[in-house]
Amino acid sequence: MLKQEPDKSLDAAVIPAANGPCGDTAGVPSTDAPVTPLASDLGREFAPLEKQFIVPVMQDEKLVSMALLSLSLEVPPGDVPKVYAAEPRLRDQLLQDMFNHASIGGFSGNYTDASKMRILRQKLLESARNILGPTALDILMGTSIFDHFRGCAAVCLA
Predict the structure, then answer these.
(1) 147, 65 contact by CB (below 8 A)
(2) pLDDT of residue 95
(3) Segment (H or E) for 59
């Protein structure tokens, strides 16, 4: 079997050098531009919250994994600006809900179990409705769990 040559199209000058445990952000394009909502076939729009939520998962007072969640809110047409106007308060409350969910074991074991996800989804939607009122029709989640932290992860979390 032939050994594949490395891709030389990636020049070292294009990739910023990592000055710290999480790298150097110089030269990285800004993500400050507003996210365009996606139209749905139900006459609703989706407002994706721009940054992922990172939730530590603890066991016996030790970090055992991290949960990364991406959230979008389903809203009536034209209400996406209301979501972004309230995003700081919304993110604060949703993150607190996720911390609470993690503290009761919601991200441990089979965290994708329908009953665990239903509990979290219901709490997140309740909080969104407390802040946005009837604008929050539904909440959509994407999750990832990263286990077994070693090396850079320990440095990044310090």
Answers:
(1) yes
(2) 95
(3) strand 53-59
Helix ranges (DSSP H) in the chain: 80-85, 87-103, 114-132, 152-157
Tokens of 51: 């940054």
- Hey, is 65 helix, strand or coil? strand
Residue 2 DSSP one-character state:
P
Contact 106, 26 (CB under 8 A): no
| Residue 158 scores a pLDDT above 80 | no
28-31-35 Cα angle (round to 5): 155
Chain centroid offset of residue 100 CA: 16
Q: Which token pair is 80?
A: 């996406």
pLDDT in tens, 80-134: 999 999 999 999 999 999 999 998 888 877 777 777 788 899 999 999 999 999 9
44, with CB counted inside 10 A (0-12, 13-18, 19+), is middle
Please report how many Cα atoms fall inside a 13 Å half-sphere around the Cα of residue 74, on the Cβ side: 12
Pairwise CA distance, residues 68 & 158, whole Å? 18
User: Residue 129 is which amino acid?
Assistant: R
- Cβ density class 49-64: b for 16+ within 10 Å, e for less: beeebebebeeeeeee
